[in-house]
Amino acid sequence: MKKEDLFRAIGAADETLLEHSEQTARRTKPWKKWTAAAACLCAAAGIFYLASHLPDPGSGGAGIGTSDDSFQGTSGLSSYAGPVMPLTLLEPPDGISAARDVTFDLAPYKTAEGYIARFGIDVTDRYTLTNHTDSAQTVTAVYPFASNCNTRKKSLPNITVNGKNVQAELHAGAYSGTFMENTVNSQELRSWEKYKSLLEDRAYLEDALHSAPDLSIPVIVYECSTSDEKQTAQYPTMKLWFKASSNSKVLTYALDSAEYTQNGSIREYNCSLSPAGSGEPLPMVIVAGEDIDSYTVRDSSDPDSQNPSSKIVRRESTLGEILTEIVESQRDTMTYLDFETGENYDGIPQTVTTEMLCETAAELLLQYGALSDNPTEDYADGDLRTILDEAFYQGRIPYLTFTLTVPAGQSVVVQATMFKPASFYYLDSGKVDIHYYDMVTKLGSNLTFERITANIKNRGRRLYSETFGFHQADKVTLDPNQEHYQMEIHS
Description:
alpha+beta
């Protein structure tokens, strides 16, 4: 049966619909799996190589390695985890000075079976804040770190003030990267200079703390499900057609493929339906703006049937409510990578709240996706699975904020301890078993550092090259006017 005959048979004989059905541009594409799949394959290849090329931890020592003159830096990295960044204050630090001490712990990862590759190091970033005025000062401290929404608890900096844990509030910054010119691919920040461009005017920080996407946008939801009266297949498939105007913004979730006219007015979707009561998420079409004109639904296997085993339920909601439903349904099924051991784990880390993931997804939709005026090609089709996957894995700079009081004429000690993931070189670089780490001294901070020192601890992994001065000593004084320090170590 031709498509125009099918439209007439099911009572959708709108002449515009029939005309466009002959002109349909086939844009069928199976919805892509998480971009993390490719990343995990690359990580797995690197992990396999590294695990088979581990140095003997007992050989440790300072290790002269190569000359610093040959330092390759971030230019040869395949993935960059970002630098260790400094503490700052929301308020002007009038009368408050700071001293900073950073410790890098190079101890290898040890299990009951012995030493294995460790894809990061422990970092302690310690600050002594001194109040030189005659009155106590209460300030809001802000600690930035490079990460994403795939942040498990150990990678989240633990903050103490004078040795006592504080409850810091977590704020997720927006996607920190860009999109490659003339492609649909996102491009993460690949150098500390890119971080400098993003953070030095503090606008990114202000947006992370004070702006939030509008989650109250009203939407109409068309939920696809099996009919209670008729279900002949365990996973029946259905086709959905509808006509949308240029004022309609269409999002989808859990649909298998799509094809539509070049201007997007006539759309056809295919999806598989889970058995009733399976608990699996239901496929949805979500419409913001002007509602769709009409829709038609049929079983893919029996398009002539007037009694399909699938049905559509229409309901009104908001963007925030729909994103919350979807994220909650996926909390136990999304996969994330433990950078310390290289193992994958199921479930969204508890450090990432549903609200945070919904807001980061909404930001993508409104800035780059189907709800923006100029969507990026890869997000234009409105697939929420793609958007949520990208929001989960895209790089960003989260911030931890907390309040502290510095008594008059006294000091307080603020300490951030964290697991810092390694940065990796390309497999053909000759440095596949070398990990890269770096820090910035004052980027984005309004504090005046009277002293900055760096320490190296537990030389269980040998230094390859560095600019700190660790080849000569375990503790070095850094120049606060030098913005960036870096080192390479054997895995």
